[in-house]
Amino acid sequence: MASEQDIYWMRRALELATRGIAVSSPNPAVGCVILDRAGQVVGEGWHEYDLLDHAEVVALEEAKEHARERLHGGTAYVTLEPCNHIGRTGPCTEALISAGIKHVVAATGDPNPNVAGHGMERLRTAGIETVLGVCEKEARRLNEGFAHWIRFKRPHVLMKVAMTLDGRIAPPPGRHTAREPYWITTEESRKAVQPLRWQADAALTGVDTVLSDDPLLTDRSGLRRRRPLLRVILDSTLRMPLDSKIIKTAQKDVLIYTISTDEKRISELRNLGIRVEVLSAEAGRVSLPTVLDRLGSEGILTLLTETGTRLNTALLAGGLVDRVHLFVSPQIMGSDAVPAFKGMTNPIKMAAVEVERYGNDLGLCSLLRDPWPQSQEQIITQ
Question: Which of 73, 250, 261, 301 maximizes the CB count within 10 A of its CB?
């Protein structure tokens, strides 16, 4: 069992880890707290990709500036198992050992099955007492994108849908002005979408949604991010309007996947600063698995989908969605309205649903596919 002290300080480490959201990708968001042997905080840190150093090293450097001699016999609380390999930086395990740390408490193991446990094993071999599994659920939620990418080299797919109680996302055809947004949900719900975009590396939509609603698809949270939100559009036949909001606001942050070989149209888009990638066709359309593979190769950890009926259905039916977030408005549009999903042959069951209120709307969020390996037994070595 984890002690109250372990839980208290791990929660602080998790607070620090959240400062790495949108600035640590394609690395995980990690936080670390260092206590001296008397139980006093002497160092804190979190990881930012461009600053290179991992959270443990940042916390140790802060501690060394003020209390180097008090590190011996101290405790490190870290939200992810310390690395034991050389990447862009040296192993964090060796930094902890060299500093004289005698206790290491980690929230969760490394999500890579080929690496998991090696860091904790190295610490134990060096005579350090270790605890694994404190606040594991919270730590794993924070890095679902990294866990999925490190294991499968594809982004973690979060599907966002705003719909009515009867599962409709737009009025019946002919009752909606083209290229103007039709708001299903409240302003509170729409504001809640911005943090989802902030936490994502890319947002995906289809050209049908652009033609219908003309969205911006930008991160307007106002929060720090290391790289711009990549706006991805699936457009098999290159119908993307050149005067759409996405095209007009493009700043090397728009990517169109197509199967069209219309060189004139491709040149027009590229001359406007739009990346266009031509993929091989799958059933006459852009291949969704190929899109995920391509985005994964670019270090996209989390992909937020904001799509219409066809893509919503294809993503779910293809088993490509990892987490869903539904914003449900208490209204009924009727069977003539546009459905969120159509032609599903197998039901999608949401387990452990998180429920929130956004004004008069309900938010329903659930993990469909856990990207983490099977939970390890809590390890305590004295």
Answer: 301
